[in-house]
């Protein structure tokens, strides 16, 4: 399929670029700068190329140059932030650290007309989103400056002969005025791309790909009850039918009614699901463990052990494939490409090597909103698709420090009260409840005690933290300002109904600098 090739230099926003391109209806793929780019270009399937930003500087010893083959093909190129700076360096321009850095909102003024800024005239100002400390100080002679920031720095450039452009700001973020229009201009006016990416395309391509990969083999899927694994299961059911075998492992750290919801979905779509109660094995792995990464890895190890035992016991050598509901953000935060690892994800790495099975990941290249759209097309009930993300290790990473059975019981009850209240309380006179307004909401157990007073008596009990965020892509997030009356109702219920808790606090941190989950 023809599309846009995005060269990933390690920016946390690379996937957001891809998401914006897809929202405009154009297929795209992300590759590392050292991957087999030649193959993509030789097959004549690339309309244009986007160079992403990066956490690095072009003056770092680890600087990764733009592959020369990109310039030889003369295809349209758009360099964003670091991508623009790397482009300048490729043509022997000068990029230097500046005493004045630009982070956040900035104004740029157009200097020249350009097809990239179609509809904008010289002298016109745009409000954009900057995030850089290095600046282009000397432009290569082959390029011209299209726009400058208020500080006089070059904000947009264009090659004088070829359709090669650079932007110092980020058009992919919502904060940039006309950012989507700029990307649209690049895709359709400059690259000549066609709209070829819809949810229906995703579904049929995934089904065809799975059938080709699997053939008549047996596929085993660890069904967690979350949106990603469920959509994966329904998609695979349509692709290969009874060749799919789902295994639901209850590690004892699930939310209230998780298993019941899985059973309902299984009946609706005629999924073959085996239910394995393994909470004892998981608790043994977590005993005395307090480090977040260790907890994630031990839960992963326990899952592998339980899963492997079940597969060998029930399928023997018949099982050939392991299916997972891996999506793009899982890969990003686990250190995919040239990024720094933020946290390990249960869906990324480890399982295929340990189980000796070939991996099937039909939704690996999809964002959460695309997964939900796909699920809706496949007939998964909308209320289920609106479920918030839930980590693979479950409540283990929402309990700070060591995981104990009594902590799990308190957290599960507090979390259920929080979610239940969000589901039943409407936002004013609208039909939208507060759960729908949140991108993700959950409770966190803090293993610290504070003094309280109940029934004229002194208490010394635990603390529950509430977390509710808004996010388009889960790469960045801001806290949701819930009404005080709603928070009061939730806190009152938790303190009154959850034995062992006497204090409730609210997390108002954004991502970054915090992550959405606490561990």
Précis, in short:
With 519 residues, the protein is of the alpha/beta class. Helices cover 34% and strands 25% of the residues.
How many domains? The number is: 3
Helix content: 25-40%
Output the CATH topology of the largest domain: Rossmann fold
Q: How would you state the average pLDDT, rounded?
A: 88
Q: Do you know the CATH architecture of the largest domain? A: 3-Layer(aba) Sandwich
What composes the largest sheet? 9 strands, mixed
How far the N terminus sits from the C terminus, by CA atoms, comes to 39 Å
Shape descriptor: globular
Share in β-strands = 15-25%
The CATH C-level name of the largest domain is Alpha Beta
**In which order are the strands of the major sheet placed?**
2-1-3-4-9-8-7-5-6
Rg (CA only): 25 Å
Describe this structure in words.
By secondary structure, the protein is of the alpha/beta class. It folds into three domains: 3-190, Class I glutamine amidotransferase (GATase) domain (Rossmann fold), CATH 3.40.50; 199-385, HUPs (Rossmann fold), CATH 3.40.50; 398-506, 2-Layer Sandwich (GMP Synthetase, Chain A, domain 3). 34% of the residues lie in helices and 25% in strands. The protein contains 17 helices and 18 strands. The chain has helices at residues 14-23, 37-42, 68-73, 82-90, 179-190, 199-214, 227-240, 258-269, 279-286, 292-314, 328-333, 351-355, 368-377, 382-385, 405-424, 434-437, 484-497; strands at residues 3-7, 28-31, 46-51, 77-80, 94-110, 125-138, 143-149, 154-159, 164-167, 218-222, 244-250, 273-277, 319-323, 358-360, 440-454, 457-470, 478-479, 501-506. It has a nine-stranded mixed β-sheet, with helices on both faces. A five-stranded parallel β-sheet has the order 12-11-10-13-14, with helices on both faces. Helix 8 links the parallel strand 11 and strand 12. The longest helix is centred in the middle third of the chain and has 23 residues, at 292-314. It is globular. The relative contact order is 0.09. Residues 335-350 have low confidence and may be disordered.
